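Aim 2 progress update. The chain analyzed this quarter is reproduced below.
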Amino acid sequence: MMKILIAIVAALWAGASPALAEESVRVSDAWARATILESRPGAAYLTIESSAADRLLGVTTPVAGHVMIHAVEKDGDVSRMKHIETLELPADERVTLAPGSMHLMLMGLQDKLSEGTAFPMTLNFEKAGEITVDVSVLGIAAEGPQGGY
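Predicted structure tokens:
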């Protein structure tokens, strides 16, 4: 009887763990600026909140050949983009990717990003696994989904 009970609890736990992991990371306000040409990279922005420490390992989208996570380093008055392999997500802290700051660089666009459209983007987290979000394309000079962060 005890073996059956353990097997049932183990099966329920195994079935529940992906849902629990996915709920531990929340992605919101995913958006990108419209682009003029497909030959130029695009940029996407979003906010990530994780109830447990995690790491963003990579990002994919069908609209770009590859996506790079970029941080921005300032040296005096000069800002430079720096490719980072992974993005650390401290527990219970909001990480916001925004214009002039950290962002997702969309390289090798399949077509230009047109205002008023949307596209899917899949974020791969070390613990939470894959989370797919819809990214809204805003105007070329947009500062965020509500006009800014």
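Confidence is low (pLDDT under 50) at residues 1-22. The beta strands are 25-33, 42-50, 54-60, 64-75, 78-84, 87-89, 93-97, 103-109, 118-125, 129-138. These observations will guide the mutagenesis experiments scheduled for the next reporting period.
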